[in-house]
UniProtKB/TrEMBL annotation:
Natural source organism: human gut metagenome
Signal peptide residues on this chain, from the entry's feature table: none
Key word Ligase present: yes
One of the record's GO molecular function terms: isoleucine-tRNA ligase activity
UniProt keyword annotation of Cell division present: no
Keywords: Ligase
One of the protein's GO biological processes: isoleucyl-tRNA aminoacylation
Pfam families from the UniProt entry: DUF5915
Protein name per Swiss-Prot or TrEMBL: Isoleucine--tRNA ligase
Length: 137
């Protein structure tokens, strides 16, 4: 059996990279549908994609068609779709803070999750004021 020879001039690397991005979006979109038990035959009004890239309308239409989505929107900020809550890790904080543990737990439920997550990503820790003491977590 003979196979045709590869003609390098017909290989479009940019097209391959773009279709890899399309495939990634479709795979993740299907995973999201599966995790929420929404069948692919049921249309969705809008899908948001947070990525380092933004695809042309042609490729965005492929994603919309594959996932049965009416509109695909690219976004840099996912704050409207995420929320963070914090709970103390008892094994770590218990021996160190003992009596303050319940106050720490209460204080953690009252912090702004997105702002605290920004501080954690920026510096690796954040400060919490509990019963007049500043605690770094």
């Amino acid at each position: 059996m003979r196979f045709p020879k590869v003609n390098e001039q017909f290989i479009d690397k940019k097209l391959e990279e773009t279709m890899d991005d399309v495939l990634d979006a479709v795979v993740i979109g299907r995973a999201c549908r599966n995790s929420t038990n929404i069948k692919n035959r049921q249309p969705i009004g809008k899908m948001f994609i947070k990525a380092d890239w933004k695809l042309d309308e042609f490729y965005t239409a492929i994603i919309a068609d594959e996932l049965n989505v009416k509109e695909v929107e690219y976004t840099d900020d996912v704050r409207a779709f995420t929320s963070y809550s914090f709970k103390p890790q008892m094994k770590t904080l218990g021996p160190k803070y003992g009596k303050l543990l319940n106050a720490i737990r209460t204080a953690l439920t009252e912090v702004d999750g997105n702002a605290t997550m920004d501080k954690l990503n920026e510096s690796g820790s954040f400060e919490l004021n509990v019963e007049g003491q500043t605690i770094e977590l």
